[in-house]
Structures are given as structure tokens and as C-alpha cells.
Amino acid sequence: MMKDLPLWDGTPYPDFVRTLPEIDIPVEGVRGWLLQGANQQVVFFDLPKGLAIPEHSHGEQWGMVIAGKIDLTIGGETKTYGPGDYYHIPAGTPHSALFLERSAAMDYFADADRYVPKK
């Protein structure tokens, strides 16, 4: 759970992560900090309890839960992930998520333009 990790401004991410550009995401309560590469990106997410992300697909994604608990459905198979668990979503595979607790996750996207910084 988040309370077991050191918190900075309500997140488990220290200043050097929170000084990265925040992503522009139209989902209430979600924050993300973007580490941009030439052909990929990493996003450090802070996600509220109860958030449901509907089924969608995009390029390849790999992620790890830092804190919280997530029900993640990948290609029709649902599993529950907690701190230290990681997942892989192949390119084009439909997936959805339900955040059972406030969660922190780090996701690597093989797409360089999956998210854009806030302006």
C-alpha cells in the first residue's frame, strides 16, 4: 500500500521524478510523469482507487506495480497485480484495468508518442 512507501507530495515518487514533465491525460485523478526517449517513453503513474480504464490497444507496453493493487485484463485474461508484479502487453492486444487501491505504476511504452506533456 502507498502508506508503506515514503511519500512526497502524496506520491511515492521523489522530486527528481516529479520534476519530469507531467502527461496530458483527460482522466480525473490520474497523474503521470514522462521520461521521453527517441523511440519510446516511460511514465510514472499515480492512479486513484476505483478508476476503470476501458478496453483499448496500442503499441507494446511493459509495466510494474510500485504500490497498490490492479486488476489487469490482457487479451481476455484477468489477473490481480500488486507491488513488485510486472506485466507485458504485446502490441495491438486489447487490455483494460481496474484500480482496486490507489496505485503507483511505472509503464514503458514502445511508442514514442503514446503520451504528450502538458502545455
TrEMBL record:
<dbReference type="InterPro" id="IPR052535">
    <property type="entry name" value="Bacilysin_H2HPP_isomerase"/>
</dbReference>
<protein>
    <submittedName>
        <fullName>Cupin domain-containing protein</fullName>
    </submittedName>
</protein>
<dbReference type="Pfam" id="PF07883">
    <property type="entry name" value="Cupin_2"/>
</dbReference>
<feature type="domain" description="Cupin type-2">
    <location>
        <begin position="44"/>
        <end position="96"/>
    </location>
</feature>
<dbReference type="InterPro" id="IPR011051">
    <property type="entry name" value="RmlC_Cupin_sf"/>
</dbReference>
<dbReference type="InterPro" id="IPR014710">
    <property type="entry name" value="RmlC-like_jellyroll"/>
</dbReference>
<dbReference type="InterPro" id="IPR013096">
    <property type="entry name" value="Cupin_2"/>
</dbReference>
